[in-house]
Amino acid sequence: MDHGLIAIGAGIAIAIAAGLAALGIGTAAGKAFDAMARQPEMSGRIQGLLFVAIVFIEACAIYALVVSLLLIFVF
Amino acid sequence: MDHGLIAIGAGIAIAIAAGLAALGIGTAAGKAFDAMARQPEMSGRIQGLLFVAIVFIEACAIYALVVSLLLIFVF
Amino acid sequence: MDHGLIAIGAGIAIAIAAGLAALGIGTAAGKAFDAMARQPEMSGRIQGLLFVAIVFIEACAIYALVVSLLLIFVF
Amino acid sequence: MDHGLIAIGAGIAIAIAAGLAALGIGTAAGKAFDAMARQPEMSGRIQGLLFVAIVFIEACAIYALVVSLLLIFVF
Amino acid sequence: MDHGLIAIGAGIAIAIAAGLAALGIGTAAGKAFDAMARQPEMSGRIQGLLFVAIVFIEACAIYALVVSLLLIFVF
Amino acid sequence: MDHGLIAIGAGIAIAIAAGLAALGIGTAAGKAFDAMARQPEMSGRIQGLLFVAIVFIEACAIYALVVSLLLIFVF
Amino acid sequence: MDHGLIAIGAGIAIAIAAGLAALGIGTAAGKAFDAMARQPEMSGRIQGLLFVAIVFIEACAIYALVVSLLLIFVF
Amino acid sequence: MDHGLIAIGAGIAIAIAAGLAALGIGTAAGKAFDAMARQPEMSGRIQGLLFVAIVFIEACAIYALVVSLLLIFVF
Amino acid sequence: MDHGLIAIGAGIAIAIAAGLAALGIGTAAGKAFDAMARQPEMSGRIQGLLFVAIVFIEACAIYALVVSLLLIFVF
Amino acid sequence: MDHGLIAIGAGIAIAIAAGLAALGIGTAAGKAFDAMARQPEMSGRIQGLLFVAIVFIEACAIYALVVSLLLIFVF
Amino acid sequence: MDHGLIAIGAGIAIAIAAGLAALGIGTAAGKAFDAMARQPEMSGRIQGLLFVAIVFIEACAIYALVVSLLLIFVF
Amino acid sequence: MDHGLIAIGAGIAIAIAAGLAALGIGTAAGKAFDAMARQPEMSGRIQGLLFVAIVFIEACAIYALVVSLLLIFVF
Amino acid sequence: MDHGLIAIGAGIAIAIAAGLAALGIGTAAGKAFDAMARQPEMSGRIQGLLFVAIVFIEACAIYALVVSLLLIFVF
Amino acid sequence: MDHGLIAIGAGIAIAIAAGLAALGIGTAAGKAFDAMARQPEMSGRIQGLLFVAIVFIEACAIYALVVSLLLIFVF
Q1: Within a 10 A sphere around the Cβ of J47, how many other Cβ atoms?
Q2: Helix, strand or coil for residue L75?
């Protein structure tokens, strides 16, 4: 039964982390569009920060992807 | 029972990640429409950023798809 | 018991992903109607982007459908 | 026990997908009524887009229905 | 135990789908009343669209009813 | 154990569907009162549509009741 | 174990349905008070409709009560 | 194990129904205070309707209490 | 195992009912303070109704307490 | 296993009831501060009612504490 | 297995109660800061009441702590 | 299996309590910043009260930490 | 099975506590940005308090980390 | 079964922590964009604080990553 439970562990790991990361990107991008529409001359700086935020959010998803792949191939 | 648990792991992985990614795209796009309606002259830049955000969100769903396919074919 | 668990895995995969994708389309379309009503002259561009968003959201549901069919027929 | 678990899988698949699709249609239609009341002269275009959105949402429910019937009759 | 699990599957299928469909009709109708009160001269078109939305929502509940009856009588 | 699981299936079916249908009626009626208070001269049409909505919502609860009784008496 | 599971089924049936019905009555009545305070001359009609809504909501709870009693005495 | 499961069924039945009924009374009463503060001359009629709503909500809790006692003493 | 399950049943019964009743009292009292601050001359009547609402909410908690004690001492 | 399950029952009983009671006190007190800030001359009466509400909320937590201690020492 | 289940009971008891109590203190304190900022001359009385509310909320957490320690040391 | 269940109990205890305490500190601090921005001359008193609130919230987390360590080292 | 359950305990402990702590920091920081934008001359004091709040929130996550490491290395 | 349960523990640990951390970054960044749009001259300081907040949030995700890797490689 070990094999099956490892698969479930890997599945849960990527599922919740990637899903919530996607929601987080959606929230941050949505707020950024909102802020740009209100203050167009700030759009350059906001765009830059949005990319930074997306990168850090993706990093969280990558952590889970790494754990997930480790569980599948190494464990 | 291993075979069955792997299938559940693969199912959960794509289900939650793809579903929340879809919600995230919906949120981001909805906020983008909102911002465009308020500041039409910003619509070019917002449209570009929306595509970037969608690409990063889809990336999260793809991570889960990869894990899911790995669980089905390789594991 | 393998057969039954695979069926549950396939069921969960399409259920959550398709359901949340439907909610996401509903949210995006609802916000688009809102934005069109406030800025009618932007309705062409918003309509185009809405189709793009729906396509990407449907893609997420399709990922889950593919995994689900793979689990039923191939696994 | 296989037979019973397949039934549960089919039940979950259609239950969550159809339920959330119904909620999604309700949300989209509700927002459309709202937008029509605010901008009556846009009601033709919004009505058209509402049908498109409903069709895509129903498609998600149909995916789950197909999986559900496959689980009952073919699997 | 098969018989019992099939009953649970049929129960879940109709329970969640019909319940959420009922909530969806309530939401759509509530928003429609709201819109009619704000724009009485649009009430004819909104009423028509409300019936269309209700029909599509009921369709989702019917899908689940069909699956539920199939599970009880055919499976 | 079959007998007991069928009872749980029947219980879940009517519980969730009837409960959410009751919430749906509450939501729709609440919004209808709201709309009537804002636009008294529309109250006739809204009252009519409210009954239509309630009938369709009750229909969803009836579907679940039918499944529930089928599970108890026929299955 | 059949006897015990039937009791749980009956308990769940009445618990969720009656609880959500109570919440629904609370919501509808609360909105009705709100509407009466804003438009006192509509209070007669709203009061009448509130009773209709409460009756339909109670009907949902009664459905579950019937199923619950059937499970206890007949099943 | 029958005895214990019946106790759990009775416990769940009264717990959820009575708890949500209490929440429902709280919501309805809270909205009633609100409405009275805005339209003091309607307070007599609202007070009367509040008692009616509370009675119907308590009825839901009583249904669950009856089922709960039946499960304990008769079942 | 009967003894232990009865204890869990009694625990759940009082836990959820008493907890939600406490939340309900908090909501009702909070709205009452709000209404009093807006319409000080109504504070006598609101205070009276608040006690009535609290009494009915406590009644719900008492129902669950009775069931809980019955499960512990009589069952 | 009886001993352990009784401990879980006692733990759940006090956990949910005391936790939600604490939330209820927080809500009621928060709304009271709000009302006092808006209508300082009502602060005496509101303070008195707040104590009454807190006492009734604590009563709910005490019910659960009693059941919890009964389960530990008497059951 | 008794020993382990008692530990879980003690863990749940303190976890949920202490966590929700912490949230309740946060809510009450947050609303108190809000009220002080709007009506600085009431800050003395609000500060006093805030301490009273915190004490009663802590009391709820203490109840759970007592039950938790009883379960660990006495039970 | 005792050893493992004790670990789960200790894990749940600290997890939920510390997590919700962190959320509570975040809420209280956030509201405090808000209040300071609106009424700068009250910032001294609010800062003092914020520390008091944080201390009481941390106390809740400490209770759970104590229970958790007791479960690990003493139980 | 002890070894595995300890791992799950350690996983849950850090998962929920660290996740909610991250949410808490996000909330507090978000509110701080908001307050700074409204009252720039308070930004020094708010920044200081934000660090204090973050430190206390991190402390909660550290408690869970300590418990988690104790479970892995010592238990 | 130990091996499988450790994998599930590692999966849960990174999943929930990384996911909620991603949501937290999204919230904080979204609020920061909002604040920058309202007060452009504060954008330097807000940007700095945003990085500090993101670092502390990432720290929470790192804690969970460390526990997760420890569970996989050392435990």
Answers
A1: 17
A2: coil
CB contact under 8 A, K14 and L50: no
* A vs N contact (3+ beta-carbon pairs below 8 A): yes
Residues of N in contact with A46 (CB under 8 A): 33, 36-37
Minimum CA–CA partner of E27 in chain F: F28
Chain A CB contacts of N43 under 8 Å are 42, 45
Residue K21 corresponds to which tokens in the numbers above? 């109590």
Contact between J34 and K36 under an 8 Å Cβ cutoff? The reply is no
Q: How far apart (Å, rounded) are the C-alpha atoms in residues C8 and D11? A: 9
Taking the Cβ of residue B58 and every Cβ of chain C, the question of whether any pair is shorter than 8 Å is answered with yes
* pLDDT for residue G15: 94
Q: Is C70's Cβ below 8 Å from some Cβ in D?
A: no
Residue F35: C-alpha distances to residues C33, E37, G31, G36, G68 (Å): 21, 5, 10, 11, 37
| ipTM score | 0.91
Range list of β-strands (E), C1-75:
none
* Calculated CA dihedral for residues E33, E37, E41, E46, nearest 10 degrees: -20
pLDDT of N71 over the 90 cut: yes
Residue L40 has pLDDT above 80, yes or no: yes
Of G72, H65, J13, nearest to I6 (Cα)? J13
Distance from CA of B27 to the nearest CA of C (A): 6
Burial (0-12, 13-18, 19+ Cβ within 10 Å), B38: middle
- Is the pTM higher than 0.80? The answer reads yes
Of the candidates K17, K41, K53, the beta carbon closest to that of J18 is on: K17
Predicted pLDDT at M2:
82
Q: Is E39 left (phi over 0), alpha (psi -120 to 50) or beta?
A: beta
Number of G–H residue contacts, CB under 8 Å:
173
The chains in contact with chain N, meaning 3 or more Cβ pairs closer than 8 Å, are A, M
Closest CA to I27 of H39, K16, H24: H24
CB atoms within 10 A of CB D55: 13
Contact M37 N41 (CB under 8 A): no
- Is residue D75 scored above 90 in pLDDT? no
Average pLDDT per 10 consecutive residues for chain C, totaling 75 residues: 88 94 94 89 88 94 94 88
**pLDDT of K74:** 87
Tokens of I35: 């209404």
- Cβ within 8 Å, pair I39-H43: no
User: Touching check for I69 and chain H: CB below 8 Å?
Assistant: no
Condensed to tens digits (0 to 9), the pLDDT of residues B29-73 reads: 999 998 998 888 888 889 999 999 999 999 999 999 999 999 999
| Angle between helix D43-73 and helix E43-73 axes, rounded to 10 deg | 0
Select from G2, G3, G14 the residue whose CB has the most chain H CBs within 10 Å, as the one to mutate to test that interface: G14
Q: Which structure tokens are listed for A70?
A: 């480790």
H48 contacts chain I (CB < 8 A): no
Output the average pLDDT for chain L: 92
J15-36 residues labelled b (16+ CB within 10 A) or e (exposed): bbbbbbbbbbbbbbbbbbbbbb
Distances (CA, A) of M67 to D55, J66, L14: 52, 31, 8
The partner residue sitting opposite K8, judged by closest CB among L9, L16, L31, is L9
Any idea which residue has 């973050």 for tokens?
A: M54
Tokens of L19: 């997590």
The residue among E5, E33, E45 with the most chain F CBs within 10 A of its CB, best to mutate, is: E33
CB pair distance less than 8 Å for A19 and N20:
no
Cα-based distances in Å from E8 to B56, E2, E11, E72, F9: 39, 10, 5, 10, 4
Task: Determine the residue type at M4.
Answer: G
Is pLDDT of I74 > 90? no
Contact call for residues L28 and K26 (beta carbons, < 8 A): yes
